[in-house]
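Why this split exists: single-chain examples teach little about how molecules sit against one another. For that reason, every record in the complexes split bundles all components of an assembly together and asks for one structure covering all of them. Below is a record exactly as it appears in the raw files.
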Amino acid sequence: MFLARHEMLYEKLRYSLMIAVISLISFLIFIISALALGLANENTEALSSWPTKQVLLSKDANGNMGQSLLSTEALKAYPHQNQQAQVGITPTTLKGQSKNISVQYIGLKSNEYIYQDLKLSSGHKPKHRNEIVVSDKLTQYQLGSKVKLGVSSQTYTIVGKARHAQYNMAPVVYGNLSNWAPIKGVTPNYGGSGIIVKDSSGLKPKHADEKVLSRQAFLNKMPGYAAQNKTFILMIVFLVFISLIVITIFLYILTKEKLNNFAVLRAQGVPNRYLLQNTLGETFIMLLLSVGLASLLAVVSAMLMPKQIPLYFDWQLGLAVGLGILSTGLLGSLIPMRMITKVDPVSAIGG
Amino acid sequence: MNSLLLKDINKTFGQGSATVTALNHINFKAKAGELTLIIGPSGSGKSTLLTILGGLQTPTQGQVFLQGQSLTELTNKQREKLRLEQIGFVLQAYNLVPYLRVRDQFALVDQLTQHHLAPAAFQQITNKLGISDLLNQFPNELSGGQTQRVALARALYPDPAIILADESTAALDSQRVLVVGQLLQDLAHSENKAIVAVTHDERLKQFADHIYELIDGHLTPVY
């Protein structure tokens, strides 16, 4: 990469500008990926924190646990097992000293795995019916705060705060399963929303109006989840395609300007392979610097971004995105490389 | 032995009624230690002849020998290697890579081949050509004359058998033409190289050991 290195050092401003443009596009891809992952997490964080392989809920809920109603009798058909947990999930309003907040109430049984495996950042798990644990994102409430939930007249005390407690774009409130019906405003005939299954033991529905979904199928049914993800994937694909076009244009212009020099070098016996290696090397260095700079910008952004903005940086996703940008960029060097192979050294003779 | 020998060379382009004969029964030789001039007007076939001399093109008919080796039987890759190691080009323009300092123009040759002048011999050449204090300059910082001298040194660096100079005095004033002519003669004699200069500049005649005239594809020895 002798020629590439010297050229880039000679034309520092030109290459810096190109690297800046590619970095900004890459940075945008990183941010959108982080936003996509962050928003996906807002939907699924709680579910991901409970090991989940399958979900049982009512058939007519259309895959939405918040709309699922299972009777107390129906739930009795599923005896307690270590790998299963009955839940009652409902969207509701948390009312306290601050303004009302939309939350997702998740009722649990204390002898089941979700309750037992709850990860708290402070306080303790609910021991009584009037105790609740809230998402640690509800920073306006502290341990000991008294609140009301939904249409229930019960006053609840916050005794703990949980990590990774987001469900369907709302902070989660964990409490006793028996609170779910009054909070939701349904009769005590209904015992919960469904059953979460930890392993792949293959839970079968015992009633005709029930359905079992795999974890992924359940996620895809979450309101807005699939559409949101598809939108972000489309945006990322477009941006990667745009970066490919930008890189190709840059390299095309750079190569076109050098064709006369390449013709002389070929006349002097410099092999095509050497010139191609340098062009590929130049592209690789530019892309590596661009992706590196974009990563740095992303890290700084993550540090400065307010916590309310759902950005989630995952190093594996970042690596995949970086490699994607590198690969498509190297693909963009194919056109300039073809131009180089077509250089006729005879054209160097005669001026 | 002739460094460069052309035997009954014909070069045609196109086919049938559109055939153009660029070179017609060309016989030519250049020896080591001599400056040979090929003079002709524009359109006489000078560029075509130069590309055949340099192994960039093969003739339609005839044979080309470099140091006794036939170029016409070689593959493109073999002729490319030969150009890198055995033939030095000094062209009208774009001789030097614009983003390499003068010393790096030679370092580029080091990247590509082991075949080059020993450091002492190289220093002698740079001193003779007066470019020793230009080694840290970029080509755009050099004058026209300096650029030509660096290009000559670059052509000599791989220690080639022959140097081919294409209109090496184009865009130079009269005084500089004489300087370049003298330089080519001195280098041919002192470095024992076969230097072939293709030009339309009659002012170089006084420096040549042999002169050929090229008119409408026909080559005639004059001297």
